[in-house]
Amino acid sequence: MENKNGKRIIGEGRYLRLVDDNGWEYVERKNTKSVVAVVNRTKSGHVLLVEQFRPAVKGNVIEWPAGLVGDEGDPEESLETAAKRELLEETGYAAEQIVELITGPSSTGVTSEEITYVMAVGLEKKGNGGGVAGEKITVHEVPASVAHEWLSKRIESGVQVDPRVYVGLYFMDKAIDEK
Prior knowledge:
A hairpin with a 2-residue loop joins β2 and β3. It is built from three helices and eleven strands, in the order βββββββαβββαβα. By secondary structure, it is α+β, with helices and mostly antiparallel strands.
């Protein structure tokens, strides 16, 4: 089915749609176009990173707590609400405040999805985290002062690190320095 702009749907699943837009193929999310990544630093100076198995790369990946905006069935969900929800679900920490850092495309050659980095402020431990049903998330509390070294050791051990972790560390440090 082609529309008047030359965009046609090649195929779709429950959550994703493959489109051809005037010869360029990419993926769209059916229920949202926005992802939120929650960079953070606890009062004790640790960053909370999550690790989970990702079938697409057939291995464990270290990431920021993150998720889709509106994936709980609320198309009007705000970035702040989604960020707080994902942080609590994945790490067990609640945030007092969410500060938006930067928004941009997540993978311009493959998807129309945008990712917004936010910084969680005023963290308080409320539970164990680990994700929702079906997710098996491991939470890592890493001293921010040694985060880069810790990530290097994880890579050496065979765990993949999403490069966006480094992007988040950069923008978090920049936001903290500007205070």
